[in-house]
Each structure stands twice: as structure tokens, then as C-alpha cells.
Amino acid sequence: MSEYALQCVDLTKAYDGNPVLRGIDLHARAGQIIALLGPSGCGKTTTLRLIAGFEPPDAGEISVDGRVVADARRALPTEERRIGMVFQEYALFPHLSVQDNIAFGLRGAKSERIVEMLALVGLKGLGRRMPHELSGGQQQRVALARALAPAPRVLLLDEPFSNLDTALRAQVRAEISTILRGAGITCLIVTHDQEEALSLADEVAVMFDGQIAQAADAQTLYRQPATKAVAAFVGEANFLPGRAHGMTARIALGDVTLDEAASGAVDVLLRPEQLLLGGEDGGTQAQVRWREFYGHDQRIGVETDAGLKLVARADAGERFLPGQRVGVRVRGKGRAYGSG
Amino acid sequence: MTTASRPIIPRLNDTAAPLPKARLRFRLPLVPLLAAGLTLLPIALLAAELLTPRVDLWAELWETILPTMLGNTLLLMVGVGVGTLVIGTGLAWLVVTHEFPGRRILEHALLLPLAMPAFVMGFTFMSLFDFAGPIQSAWRQLFGRGAPFPDIYTGGSAILVLTLVLYPYVYMLARAAFREQAGTTLEAARALGCTRRSAFFRLALPMARPSLAAGVSLALMEAMTDFATVRFFSFPTISEGVVRLWEGRMDRVAATELASLLMVFALGLLVVERWMRGRARFHQQGGKGRRVTRLRLRGWRALVAFLACFVVLFAAFLLPVGQLVVWAVAEINGLIPGTWETVYGQYVGNTFLLSGGGAAATVGLALVLAHGARIYKSRWVRGAARLGTLGYALPGSVVAAGVLLTLSPIDHALGDLFGTGLILTGSLAGLIYAYVVRFAAVAYGSVDASMVKVKPSMEEAARTLGASPLRILRRIQAPLIANGMLAGAILVFVDIMKELPATLLLRPFGMDTLGVWAYMLAAESFWQAASIPALTIVAVGLLPVFLLMRGGGDTSAT
Amino acid sequence: MHPHRLLMIVVLALCVMGAVLPAAAQEREVVNVYSARHYGAMEAAFTSFTDATGIEVRLSQGSAQSILERLRAEGTQTVADVYFTIDAGGLDLAASEGLLQPVESDIITAAVPEDLRDPDNLWFAVSQRMRTIMYNPQTVDPSELSTYEQLADPMWNGRLCLRPATHIYTISLVGALINDLGEEAAETVVAGWVANNPTYIDSDTRILETIAAGGCDVGLTNHYYLARLLSEDPEFPVALFWANQGEDQRGVFRNVSGVGVTAAALNVENAITLIEWMVTDGQVGDETGIPGGNYEFPVNPDAELIPVIAEFGEFTIDPVTLSSYGDTQEAAVALLERAGYGF
Questions:
Q1: Which of helix, strand or coil describes residue A15?
Q2: Which one is predicted more confidently, A287 or B34?
Q3: What fold does the segment set A4-227 form as a domain?
Q4: In the prediction, which pLDDT does B554 show?
């Protein structure tokens, strides 16, 4: 048996000559939760559809449990892949009751499994309801129960929370996370919401324009983004042009220490929380342009006298007003990217 | 959660069955392609017939009846085209943009002639207006024996009758089109100094063009399939010729050749219609613009508007139905009890069996096509589905000829092998096949339109749950579109009831329908006897018309 | 029940019915008849046959030409047991092409005179009809009328009502003219009719009604259409003239409806029973009889005439043998087309 429950190698796919996927590599160990994160149109949903078997890849290979299920010439039909899927709009069968929805993928003795699944997703006693009689969150749990009931090898989730109210989202996400972990199933979650990806997944693959820019755990992704684009997409980023010499770089805010050696013209990544705003007496002189207050912290937009616009994050305690003069200093290490 | 003690999903080293050892393979959309091929085959074979014309036969036809038939067919097309366009569009404009006494009822009632098969209208009119009929008799009483009255055995009569039966196709689509046009557009035009009349000609009419083209072409397709009405009025067309050669002379070869010529007409019509619709996809931006405010007519104008609608309704529905009822009452009084019920019951049984079987088969095929177009996202399947519904443009006699071309080699092969009789062409199978080819589009339109209710993700979800395409069709698609299937089935059922040429040419032994019965009686001028089966057809035909009225005139006509 | 379940059940039921009904019908005693006799004229007669024998009659109707062609096309594979047509020509053609089988039945040969059946007993007439001249007594004096040929005289210009060339009645009448006069003379006659600008009406009944209404003065129809109209309305203002009755003339044109057992018949016994009934008990002069239901003349000399047709009076019948009708049929079709006779 292969090391990976799900493996994609060099998947490519084009529609009408327009490449959508250009060599996707993805690996998920058994029980691992992987998130595929990217802006809309980056090809993440296409990747999911290829894995599900709704469409064949132009090239590359998809394996489940070490068995090839699709390559450029052949494909196992979806219904034989043992892959579960939860759809963005849930796709519950409106004419079937909750328990019939759950039973749809089951063979043989069903009732015990239905009870089990209803318990798992916390919908005990609602088996006879029709989908339209349920709330959005309940519908989603039915969709999940339905997908899990036949014991798929891999579960795919396509933007699973985007149809929920923001208020509900965090709560449902936590519940689902618990269920998925409890089930110990290998998951691939497609999302454009970085918070979702970072909080749910063991590993996040960030995708731009048909390619995976970086696949790593959440912390690595935030601390050591592989590219400027990843850095900008995952969390907020300030890029400051400068010149690097080994472990330091000179930028408009002075010299900063780098986390890796670099040389020549670079853009240095500094996260907003790395910019400290103090009194006029220290640091680079700047003026506060705007402020967004969040309670636990606040974001402050400043413009240096040289005209450089930056975003900083500060504790809730300090008070900043637009027009106020401040001095900007750097905390921690920057990360350099070759500019251009 | 207590269940957490045991993993719900078996882990990989658990006992769960491994992935199936099924070989990787292409999944060809075999069934949908076959289904589309099945309906295309007769048309294709007939087209191939055109490539190998029998010169001697054509020479003979050309020297005898062909020029007349060609001329008559063209005349009929032009006459019915213009007639239905003028009446259908005019009435639609009247009821959509004007208010006058009786409009509410008339607006719906004007759809009623859809229930009337053309040949029923044909023989009713003939009996009413021919020399011995009540109208001419009254005329002579009024103006003396020698008072001139136009000859009714002319193309003009055939055109008039077909126009009256077929204008609702144009009316229905034109009405929908005018309704969709936002009132604001027309009001803007009027603010720019357009009169109401020029707003109609310069704006409303061009904007409705695609709908009008579709309506007229539907009417013309029906006109082209008619052989009985033109026969009643001694106005032989190509369609009539096909039936005459086949039924009268049993010269199926000659009939097939002639049918292939008729097919050229039909496909030509289809091309013209596509071209007329062409790029013109006029849709009102925003869609939900305010409706046209109705102009309230008063005095003599209101009277004229009312009369315009009423006269058409009277001539196209009330008068013929009234005559049929009078006949039927007289006929029933003279019937021998005991015998008649059995006979009538037999024809009703045959008709319901054929219409029901045909409707079920047609809807079944439409379901497979619509399902295929959904599940297999290939252009091939979608194109094939569209081609597979081409038969709606073909006259019944053409379809019958194509079906015969398709099935008789199989029949003979089977006969040689097993010594069976004409098990396909001599049985219900051949006729039902013809119905499927002819009416696939009607059912497909209905089924495909309601497929919208099935979100693609539902099908995909079902597939991830291990459902085969067949299971998806059975458990997901079919139940969700049951209403659309039912509507399609009703439409096809009634169309088959009204269908005459294919039924006449392909009906198996002892399978005479109400339509054939009525036609045979009418052809022998036993109008009184024909009125009972004819009225039965009209009565059942009203069912989809009422559905249409309730639907507010929305149609899925292709 | 879900609507789709219902639909499925209906569909299934229909399919089952389609499969089972014909099979079930096969279980009963039946006889399958290809009939050119139009609807309405026979149902009562066949019902009384079924009542008498328990044998069900299954009809498939078509024009005289179409059922003959159908029989030809189907050959040994036909399901028809009995071929029942309205024209001696069709009977003769079917017989000479081997589509019928001889029937040995003393009952039939005793009931049907020799000149009304095939010499080899391949077919038997069951009723007789005359196609003759009908006129409006208000505008036509019977002395003006004499023969079919005389209707070609220009005096009848614009006054004739005729049945179109496509109908078997017209074809067989012209076939008889060819038999009697030769092809050339027959064509002259037909051309004369055409030159008189007749009104073509594809219904004998309507021809008579048109004469009654004054639309034509003279027409050619079968006698029984008038008989039927007269029985509904004794005052119906059209009169019958027996054509070609003069001293040296051949007599009125007769045709018959007749039956034969198909060569491939499966229910031969039932078919013979049916024919026996048709020429004996079925010869009654009311609507439960084969000729009676249609106001035709019986073939069985013992049968009584219906009063209405008895009133048409005595007449001579063209003695041409019925079995010669088939020979001229094709020539008649061609002649009609050449002469420009309307269709």
C-alpha cells in the first residue's frame, strides 16, 4: 500500500486550449486534511473535479490508495473511485428524506449505518425530515453524513462553508473539523478563505494560475512564504524594496535582518505586526492615514515622508488618529524576494 | 459524542474492501448516442435515398403529377405562412396591448383550435361550404339559384382551413414575445414621437421576429404533414402524393422517393427558420420591465377588436365543433345499441394503446437524450441529442417512409433467419418507432426544460456515492422531472392522437385508431358517423391546451 | 404515491397491454379480415355473425387498392385470413396472383350462382351493386338519358358530377368501358366526359346531395347511395336511371363485393364459416345482413330485396364476366390519367 491516500502527479488540464491546470502535484497521507487555497479561477475546483472523476485530466496521474484512478488515456468512472464529496451548495436530493439521502450510497443493511451517521453529525431524530425543512448548517451536516456513509477513501469538500452566514461559519467549521478528525478520514478541502484553510488543514496548498505555489503547514506558509504572491495571499504583507547583503538588507526603514541570506535588489516582506509605531522621536518618520479598529487589535495605514505606504498592526491599547505623526520601526526578521 | 470511541470511517488498514479491480476505461456515452442514432437513422437513410434517385421514376412523376404537386405545395406554404403570420401576430398584438370587452376570455380561447386536427376541420368545412352544404343552400335561398359562390374545391380553401387550425402556433409565441417586451421600450419610442402603429411595425414586430419565425415554421411543418385536408379540397401536394402512392398504389418505392423530396422541403424550412431567428436574440435587458400598458378601446373600436377575435375563434373552433356536436347527436340517436359501444370501445382502446405506448416510448427516449446531454458533458452527445429531435420538422409520411427503409431490411433478415413474419413493420413496433422519431422533439423540449431542476452537483454527488448513470436517471433525474415528463407525455399523447399520415401508412392489422376511423368515414362523406371519433379526439386534445392556458402561454417550443 | 411512480406504473401497464392484448386475442376463435368495405356498413352484420358462431371478426380497413397491395406485399406473411373487397377486379387479380386458396363448400356453391363466383372457387361475391346514372328530375327529363357514353355529349357541359380518378368505382367503371368498347372508343368517351367540365366530388353521397341541391344535373353513383338517402328521406329529390337498357345495349354496369380465403390463412375453418354465413344467413335484407346493411342486391337468389331498392325496378345487367374486371384495371388507370380526368 502506498504511502499516500491521495496522490496527484503533474496534472494538466485545458479548456478550449486555455490551460487551467499546469502540472499539479498533491499528496495526502491517510487521515491528513489538506486545503487547496487560492483565488477564484486559479484551478482549485478543477483539480477537485479531476480527482472526483467528473472530468479526465489531459495529462498526469491521480492515485487513490496507490491505485491509479485516472491518467491521460484512461479513467475510472467517478462511481467506482470511492471518493466522497461535499458540495458548496450541498446538492442534497430534494425529493429524498434525510435518511434516504444518507442511504443513497449504501448497499445492504442500511438502517444501522444511517443511525450511526445521524449521530455522528448530531442530527439524531431528524432522519425523516426533508432537506428543505432543515437549516443551512443542518443541511451541510446531512451532506457530510451522506458523503461519509459509504466509507470513502478520500473526502473532497468544495468551499464547504461559503453558503453559511459569517456568524455561523466559525461554529460549523469547528464542528465539522471535530467530525472529520474523529472519522480519521483523508480530506481535501477547496477554499478561497485563508482563515478556513489555515485553521482546518494539516497542510495548505496555495494555488495560483493553475499551479501550486507552495504546500506547507500553516505556520511555514505564513512565516516562510515561497513567493511574494503566497505572502500577499496568506495574511497581509508589506513589501519594501531594498538591497540585500547576506543576512541583512537595507530598506527605507533602515537595515533589517533577513531569515535567509540574499543579495542584490530585493523586496523585503514585513508582516503588519512587525511594524512598530512609536513617537516621532524614533524610527522612520511617517503620518497615520487611516485606522481600522477590531477590538483585539487594530490596523493602521501610514505613509512615510518618502511616500511609502505601509500597513501596521498594533495592540488595541494605543491610540492613533489620522494625521498623527509617528515613527516606524521594524521588529523581527524580514524575508527577501528577488525583485522584478 | 459517544461514537468517537469507534472510528466511523474504516481506516485504511481496516477490513474495508479495496478499490474495485475494474479496468480503467473510457466510458462511452453509448446509450444516449444509440438513442439519438435510432431517431436519426430513418432520416439519414431517406437522405441517402436522394443520392441514388430512380431516374425513370422521377421522369414519370415529372410528366404526370409532380409539377402540380410542387406548385401546390409551394402555394400552400406561402398561403399558410402569410395567413398564420397575419392572423397570429395581429391577434396577439391586439390582446396584449389593448383592452376591450371579452379580452380576458378571448385571449385564452384563441388557443382552442390547437385541439383540432386539421383534417377534422377540413371535412367539417367542406361539408358546411360545399354546394350541398348549409351555407351555400342558404345563400341560394337568399339570392336565388344562380347566385355565384366561390368554388370551394381549390387551394384557397385548403389554405384557409389550415391557417385557421394552425394560427395558434404563431399567436402563442407572438403573444409571449409581445408580453416580454417591456412597456418602457415602447413608451420610449412613443416619447420619441412614434405613433402606436409605427411603434408596432418599427419596434415590436422586429423584436418579436425570432418568435414569429419559430411560430410560422411550426405552423408550416404541420401544414406540410397534412395530406387529408388538401385531399378533401382536391389540392394535391407532395405529402398527399406520398400517401397516394403508398396507400393507393402501394408503390412504396415511389412513395419513398417522393418522401425524400418532401424531406428537402422540410429541412429547407428548418434552415430558413434558423436563419430568420439567426443572430437575433432580442432580450429585454433586465427582463422584468413593466408590462405594456393596455390601451383601452371604446365604442366601435372595441367592437371591431372583439369581432376580430371572435370571428377567428368562431370560424376556427366554435363553428366546426358545433357542427360536429350536431352530427354526433344525430348519429347517436340512430345507432344500434350494443354494437356501437363495442366498435367505439375498440377504436378508443387502439388509440389509447398507440398514443400511450408512443408517448411512453417518446418520453423514455427524450429522457435518455436529456440524461446523456447532462451526464456526459461531451459536445457529441449534446449535438446528437439535438439532431435526434430533427424528426419534428418532417411530415408524418416522410417519417413513415424512413422507418420502413430502416426496419424492412431487419424484418427480412429476421424472417430469413427465423421464419418470422413482418415482426417490426407489421406490428406496433414500426408505428411506435415512427411516433418516436416524429415527436421526440416535443418530449425532449419538455424533459430538457425541467432538467433545470436537477442541479449538476446533484448528479455529481450521486456519482461520488457510487451511483451508475442508470441509477442517477432512475433515482435522481426521473423523480425530479416527473412533472416535465408528464407534460411531455400528454403533449405527445395528443399529437399522436391527431397524427394521421404515419398512422395510416404503418398501422398494423386491426390497429385502426380514432383518427384513421374518422378519416376513413370522412373520406366516404359519412360525416355524421365521423363526428363521434373526431369529437373524441378534439376533447382529449383540449387537455394540453388547458395546460397551456394555465401556464400563461409560456412554451418550450424549440 | 409519488407522481413518478404513477407514471412508471402507467407506462409499464401500457407496455404489458401492448404485449399481452394481441396474444390474448389469439386465444379466442377469430378470423382476420382485410376489408375494403368502409366502416359503419358492416359492424352490425359481423356482430350478428359473432353472436351466431362465437367467432370474433377482426377488421383492418383500407381502400380497395391498398388492401390488395398490402396482401401482395405481405405474401405468405400476411395475418389476413379473409380478403374482402368491393371490386371484382381486385378479387380477380388476387386470385390470378395466387393470393387466394380454393374453398370447397357445398353451402357456398349452393348459395352463390355460378356467374357470381370464381370458376375455381377462389372467391365469391357476397353482394351486388350497380353503378348507374342519377339525375335531378326537375331539370332532366329521363328521355334525355340513355347510356354512359351519351354523357360525353356536349349537352351535359357543366352539368355532370363525377367521382375522381383515384377511386376504385371510377376505375372499374372505365375498365368495363374498355372491355365493352375497346380502349380507343373508351378513351373517346372519357375524354368527352372531361370536356364537359364535370365537378369531381370524392363521395357518392355528396354527389347525390349536390344533384339534389342543384349543383349538377346528372351524376354517376352506385345505386345504394341513393337507396340509403331515400330510406332516410323518401322525398329525396334525385332519381335513378338504369343505364344502357336499350334493345341492342349491354345493360347496366355491375360490380360486386366479394370475399376469398387468403393462401396463407391460419384460421381457414373460421374463414370458411364466415363466408358460408355471409352468403346464407348474412344475406338478409336489413342492417344485420351483408347486402342489406348496405342496400345492395343479394347474391343468394333466395334472399329478399329491401323494399327501397326493389322500387328501382327491373333492369338488365351487363353480362361481362366478373373475372375479366382485373384485366382492364391497369389500362383504366392509365387511360384516366391520359384523358386528364380529375383526381
A1: strand
A2: A287
A3: Rossmann fold (3.40.50)
A4: 40
